[in-house]
Amino acid sequence: MNFVTFQFAIFFLFVLILLSLRINTLKTHKTLLLGINIAFYSFAGVQFLPLLLIVAFINYYSAVLTNSHPLKKHAFRRGVIGIAVLLQILILGFFKYYEFLILSAEQLINSAGLQISLIFLLPDMDILLPVGLSFYIFQGMSYAIDRYRDTALKPMTFLDVLLFVSFFPVVLSGPIMRSSQFFPQLMEDSPAGSDEEYEQLEKKLINRDIAEGFSYILSGLFKKVVLASYLSEHIVRDVFQSPEFYSSETVLVAMYAYAMQIFCDFSGYTDIAIGIGRLIGFKIPQNFNAPYLATSLKEFWHRWHISLSAWLRDYVYFSLGGNRKGNKYINLFITMTLGGLWHGSHLRFLIWGMAHGLGLVFNHAWTRYNPCKAMLKNGFFAKTYAFFSWFLTFHAVCVLWLFFRAGNTQTAFAMITKILAFTEEGDGYPLLVPIAVLLTMLMQVIGKHCFSGFAFILEKLCFPFKAALIALICAIILKLGPDGVLPFIYFQF
Which residues cross the membrane (predicted)? Predict the structure, then answer.
């Protein structure tokens, strides 16, 4: 179920009404929230609900087994978690690479001289890939691996694990939460003091959650409905489909436009998810922090899709040995290559992941052996160095986005060739496109300040004015956006 639909608005209104009821026990609250999660996922893809239950059970049972045996039975515990992780990788691999494997098998059979078609084995791929599969598998695996690594973390009940992996604001496209971020927010916790003081504090906190929650939702709607939709419809879609019809300048602007589109699309989704979470009493972690201001690829991955970056670091990079075992540069490269493959079976995703891996390897090596370290003490040189570092990082990221977005690697290379040709032959672009690109870059700089200021104003307004202002801004955003809004980009992953 897309967040930017009338159906979801109605659904979420019922959720707010249900959760606003006076619930006396934690157990009742969790049961109600679990029912909401299951209902939401059923609307998104009821045929895949059994798969969600299977993933929850695998992680629940593996945590029980690894926790119920003493540490001296290390081989048994490692075997249990290994099997649990392998099963989920196989599930993920089957659904993500099913088409690739079938087509590869058919090509191999035909190369042997046998004319056998396996196309009949390929169902509609839009139906085949379960919604949110990558995200709830990663979330569930983090729960099980954390309890394998730290036996002080006691296993939760199956229903609690299911509640965690199916949490509806994040189940479709993240952010990927950890159990340490989720479960403490379910605990009953009353601050010390009188009942009157507690009620006043509760009202203040609820008012702040409402203000910040709607601020996040409005921010996400503006990014997705206005900016991402405009850039997609007016330049990105057409240029990436047929770059040969456009001038070098237009293809270059399209490259920048897609970098801004994917940021507005994905961070817009995250903002809405965070806002929804805040309105129902949960603090969902940030997933973006002005990534296009990064002055290195290492910093970029600390700012972009933060929950996935941290997941790959904690559960892939560290498992490979991290900085302690083996070669950290090889571990980095393997981690980012797997991160690229996570997005799909296409060669372009492999190139994208490997290129980021090589970039991070160079980045870490340069940081260690940088011959300019002494010169960075000079203020002017330090600022100049920081600018060029940002410039190179930003353009490296933008160029690599070409492989992420293009239909195939040939199109990506064709766009790079077109940009480098500096030809004026071909169609141009609407003048509002560079304005939208610059506005998105400006949001990287002042976005936090605008958000804080608007949330502060919204918190101070009384309820009628608060509701009127939210409704007015929503109406303006929907008026500025297209008639129909495309699904979020990361729904396909």
Answer: 6-26, 38-63, 75-95, 116-138, 158-177, 387-407, 428-447, 467-491
Roughly how many angstroms between the first and final C-alpha of the chain, as a whole number? 15
Catalytic residues: 343
Split at pLDDT 50, 70, 90, the class of 190 is very low
The residues with which 246 forms a beta bridge, in sequence order, are: 427
Checking phi first, is residue 441 left (phi over 0); if not, alpha (psi -120 to 50) or beta?
alpha
Residue 84: what residue type? A
The alpha-helical segments, DSSP class H, found in 166-305 are 179-182, 195-221, 229-231, 237-241, 248-279, 297-303
**Long-range Cβ contact pairs of 46-49 (< 8 A, separation 24 or more):** 47/127, 48/130, 48/131, 48/133
Rg (CA), the chain: 24
- Sequence-separated (6 or more) residues with CB below 8 Å from residue 17: none
pTM: 0.91
Domain span at residue 132 reads 38-189
- pLDDT tens string 227-283: 999 999 999 999 999 999 999 999 999 999 999 999 999 999 999 999 999 999 899
40: which 2 tokens? 């939401």
Q: Are residues 266 and 149 in the same domain?
A: no
464 vs 476: CA distance, rounded Å: 18
In this prediction, residue 485 has a pLDDT band, given cuts at 50, 70 and 90, of confident
How far is 473 from 3, CA to CA, in rounded Å? 17
Number of compact structural domains in the chain: 2
